Amino acid sequence: MGRSSFQPGPAREIFIVDDDSSVCDALKLLLGVEGFGCRVFRDAESFLEALDHENPLCVVMDVQMPGYSGLEVLRILKARHFEAPVFMMSGRSDIAMAVEAMKTGAYDFIEKPFAAGMMIERIRAAVAAQTARDCGRVDGIPQFAEARLLTARERDVLSLIAKGASNKEAGRRLGISPRTIEVHRARIMDKLGAKNAADLMRIVLMNAGPKTRGQSAPEDMVAAD
After folding, report:
1. Which of 24, 63, 80, 135 to pair with 91, CA 20 to 30 A apart?
2. CB under 8 Å to 103, separation ≥6 — which residues?
3. In three state form, how does the secondary structure of 117-147 look?
4. Which CATH number fits domain 145-220: 1.10.10.10, 3.40.50.20, 3.40.190.10, 3.40.1050.10?
5. What is the per-residue pLDDT across 27-64, written as a single tens digit (0 to 9) for each?
């Protein structure tokens, strides 16, 4: 695996939150090879304390931990309006848990054991998207009031479907299933007050700048499959 050209600053590390030392060591090694700095936290309490004075690039966190669970931490982060992408990990294949995590603000849900290449690809994409947001470049999604209610993952999904990607194509590009795209799209529509797919596009286009308005029409909205 080649070294990434991405070089994060010393104050912007990836935070790994897991009480399993073998997983932490593997992730730290894997991400270090790619040029990312990492900090490891063995419990949620120390992680939350660190957030009082540090802003990570992203967070990779296990669901099952002593003290606060990963889902409880997600709720705390949501209340704090935490913006960095949060990847949740679990050794159990639990669809209900994955859906709950995404509803609570997780950027992605990854099952253990994970493939190294897949993990790196998703983290790179998340960090690149977050960096673009920090610089004011948000993939053509305008910064109107309701759009700020969307999570980082929901913004990624909206960006793709607004460009005409089908659920399958959006899922392939984001590394998630078409069904997960549907879940995100339903939540996006609810947050933005859209009655249907065409209404969602109208909301986006009405709040877009002149350059974005000419790109697509509501009837060109993403197909369901």
Report:
1. 80
2. 183, 187
3. HHHHHHHHHHHHHHHHHHCCCCCCCCCCHHH
4. 1.10.10.10
5. 999 999 999 999 999 999 999 999 988 889 999 999 98
